[in-house]
Amino acid sequence: MRKSGFLNIAKPPGMTSHDVVDRVRRRVPRKTKVGHLGTLDPAAGGVLPIAVGSATKLIPMLPDLGSSMKSYLAHIQLGVTTSTDDLEGEILSRDESDRARLLTSDDIEAELSHFRGDFLQVPPQVSAVRQDGVRAYEKARRGESFELKARPTVVEQLKLLDYDPQTAQLRAFMVCGSGTYVRSVARDLGAALGTGGALAFLLRTHSGPFVLAETVSLEELMVSSLEDHLLPSWFPFAHLQRVSGSSVLEQKGQKLTGTFAQTGLMLARNGLVRVSPEDPGVAVVEALFDEVCQPWD
Asked: Measured between alpha carbons, how far is 42 from 20 in angstroms, rounded to an integer?
């Protein structure tokens, strides 16, 4: 029976990511470690991968897929700004003019072009970014005045799906790298359009290899066998370059000698190895899985 691995959970809006972890803990043996990959805001829904058991040790090793790491369906409300850059926060301003309702899809599309590719982005004041060792949201809750520095981000795709001028709300689909704040895009797009903007709804449609169509709801998880939904520990690494013909690994820190296709992290039959650029003929075992990857050449 598999005791470790990953769950592809559909987080409902209204719950924190930690709430979801707590729910999963109720379904596993006592003292089993459980952790989540990539926090979703409480108001957001969608893909929230969860690591169970020894798979939690693999979280720091999960590969970043760059500009295609995550994707979102976003609803953005124009004509308003808030303290959190979404509609959950305090209203800071409202555009009482008809500017937002006079906008066309072409107007919005022209500004969206500035939010594609590589650019600098200022995180929301209510975010988990650390400043002087303190989370930004903690400072915001204490009423402190502070500014966050702009950070590099990359958006591979940002597509306008539709715009309703009567409600001044638009829908967009985004594919982006880790660390991209959709709330900041909503805020900055509204500023560029001269109306103000805030995120009204967010649905994460994929995170790495975890996709929305293959998620399990918490309701289903509570009434079914956990093993029915537990993905193997090697699942998030299946796309990595494989160590061809590798024998079963025995322990962490073990060294393998040979000819490797590349340097960096690679997938072996039952674990992960890392090949150093300084010594490309040696691979060091970084982690072991509970089972052999299937299928294997």
From this structure: 10
Residue 200 in contact with residue 88, Cβ under 8 Å? Answer: no
Q: How confident is the model at residue 1 (pLDDT cuts 50, 70, 90)?
A: low
- Distance, CA of 173 to CA of 271 (rounded, Å): 35
DSSP string, 205-241: EEETTEEGGG-EEHHHHHHS-GGGTPBPTTGGGTTSP
Q: Which two three-digit tokens encode residue 151? A: 């950070």
Task: Tell me if 263 sits within 8 A of 275, measured CB to CB.
Answer: yes
Q: What is the mean pLDDT of residues 237-241?
A: 93
Rounded distance between C-alpha atoms, residue 257 and residue 281, angstroms? 6
Using only C-alpha atoms, what is the Rg of the chain?
22
Rounded to whole angstroms, the Cα distance separating 236 from 135 reads 29
Could you give the CA distance from residue 279 to residue 264 in angstroms, rounded to a whole number?
A: 11
pTM of the predicted model as reported, rounded to 2 decimal places? 0.92
Q: What is the pLDDT of residues 140-151, one digit of tens each?
A: 777 777 788 899
**Which positions are catalytic?**
41
Domain boundaries, the chain: 5-62+210-235, 67-207, 240-288
Q: Is 293 within 8 Å of 244 (Cβ atoms)?
A: no
Classify 228 as helix, strand or coil. Answer: helix
CATH topology of domain 5-62+210-235: Pseudouridine synthase (3.30.2350)
> What's the CATH code, domain 67-207?
3.30.2350.10
Nearest by Cα to 69 from 41, 112, 38? 38
Quote the CA–CA distance of 85 and 183 in Å, as a whole number: 5
245 Rama sector, left if φ>0, alpha if ψ -120 to 50, beta otherwise: left
Neighbours of 113 (CB within 10 A): 9
Give per-residue pLDDT as tens, 169-201. 999 999 999 989 999 999 999 999 999 999 999
CB 46 within 8 A of CB 204: yes
Say whether 67-207 and 5-62+210-235 share the same fold: yes
